[in-house]
């Protein structure tokens, strides 16, 4: 089979027993893909993660962190958070950032440091030179703009990135192929509208995205063929509380030839201030549906909660759980509740919660209308040097 054919149309009976067709062309027609339940590592392991992508940037600017439980001793942020129960670190990967921040060399440096301390590494591919999220997914400036060459470039990029981490001695535990890709990725080629009706039109709308995602997934297999440790492959969507979104999205993706065996874990973003429907109960409904339907592990890949939200700069957003205060105690309560929802997912498939950027001292709002959602109280008195004093909420994973 020509190696520019990404997926065969053949059938693999062994894989079909669990998850349908999977024919990845890398030198040979069939690549054996482990069944999800066998690939999810120790089923008793629960990821308690923090996204620390900005940590090197902060430190290079002179920021330091103080541990208020140790007489304000200066300590690395990951040491303080590790004492609070963190066991994994999430890093976002940009393709060609202008100043190198969040790029390959930056992340290899940070991942080496975290792995040395025993933290599992979860790499979040953004497939852009800068931010990508549900509202924007611009492709890297140097990449092609036609589907076929774009797919080939994407495949090679994933392979090369994973091989680079291997050569640096880093074992990636989870890789997310795209960040919050509700509306697709690599726009406009890979854009999707999940609200299109009828279902036939929705499925057709997902065709290019499916081609691109399969290319990224083939890049993982290319890396495995070169000796890379096999990571768990994640699909990451926002609005984890919205069951209708998740039902339509994954149905359309699989209708376009992406087999269930192509990914190992689901990741969902879940924030309290993006609509009053973003309740813990609705999150539970979605995660339970995913577990019952797909029998794969689920993670809350991003969450946070405000420590301060007083309306000083923006109107106070309405919380989906108004009984949980916008305070440090509220941060603890919110996260404990999210963990409880995830752990209650059937079949033991609730496997992790990841708090987004808890140490970002110069971006404390974390994209919300609230003042401060991080886990360190910032001190700007010696700006541009910044000091972060640990709050009680650094212990939210204890």
Please tell me about this protein's structure.
The chain is α/β, with parallel strands linked by helices and 398 residues long. It has one domain (43-395): Glycosidases (TIM Barrel, Alpha-Beta Barrel). The chain is 32% helix and 15% strand. The chain is built from eleven helices and twelve strands. It has helices at residues 13-19, 36-39, 55-60, 77-83, 104-116, 147-167, 199-205, 207-225, 243-255, 280-294, 328-343, and strands at 47-51, 64-67, 73-74, 88-93, 120-125, 172-177, 232-237, 265-269, 298-303, 350-356, 376-379, 387-390. The protein has an eight-stranded parallel barrel, surrounded by five helices. The longest helix is centred in the middle third of the chain and has 21 residues, at 147-167. The protein is globular and about 60 Å long.
């Amino acid at each position: 089979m020509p190696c520019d054919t990404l997926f065969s149309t053949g059938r693999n009976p062994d894989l079909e027993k669990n998850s349908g067709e999977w024919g990845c062309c890398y030198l040979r027609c069939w690549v054996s893909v482990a069944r999800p339940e066998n690939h999810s590592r120790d089923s008793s392991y629960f990821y308690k993660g923090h996204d620390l992508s900005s940590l090197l940037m902060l430190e290079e600017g002179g920021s330091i962190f103080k541990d208020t439980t140790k007489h304000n001793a200066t300590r690395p942020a990951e040491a303080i958070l590790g004492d609070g129960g963190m066991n994994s670190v999430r890093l976002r990967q940009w393709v060609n950032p202008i100043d190198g921040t969040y790029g390959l060399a930056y992340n290899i440096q940070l991942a080496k440091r975290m792995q040395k301390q025993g933290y599992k590494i979860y790499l979040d591919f953004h497939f852009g030179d800068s931010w990508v999220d549900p509202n924007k997914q611009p492709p890297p400036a140097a990449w092609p703009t036609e589907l076929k060459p774009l797919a080939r470039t994407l495949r090679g990029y994933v392979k090369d990135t994973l091989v680079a981490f291997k050569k640096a001695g880093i074992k990636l535990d989870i890789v997310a192929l795209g960040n919050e890709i509700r509306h697709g990725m690599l726009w406009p080629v890979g854009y999707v509208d999940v609200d299109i009706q009828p279902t036939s039109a929705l499925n057709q709308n997902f065709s290019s995205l499916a081609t691109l995602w399969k290319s990224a997934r083939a890049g993982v297999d290319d890396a495995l063929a070169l000796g890379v440790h096999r990571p768990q492959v994640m699909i990451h969507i926002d609005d984890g509380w919205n069951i209708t979104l998740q039902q339509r999205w994954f149905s359309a993706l699989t209708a376009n030839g992406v087999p269930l065996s192509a990914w190992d874990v689901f990741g969902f973003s879940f924030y309290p201030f993006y609509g009053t429907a973003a309740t813990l109960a609705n999150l539970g409904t979605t995660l339970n549906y995913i577990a019952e339907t797909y029998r794969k592990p689920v993670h809350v890949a991003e969450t946070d909660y405000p420590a301060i939200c007083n309306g000083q700069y923006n109107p106070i957003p309405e919380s989906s759980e108004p009984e949980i205060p916008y305070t440090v105690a509220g941060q603890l309560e919110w996260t404990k509740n999210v963990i409880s929802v995830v752990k209650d997912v059937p079949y033991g498939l609730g496997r992790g919660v990841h708090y987004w950027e808890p140490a970002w001292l110069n971006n404390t709002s974390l994209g919300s209308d609230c003042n401060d959602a991080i886990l360190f109280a910032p001190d700007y008195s010696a700006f541009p040097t910044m000091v972060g004093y640990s709050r009680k909420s650094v212990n939210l994973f204890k």
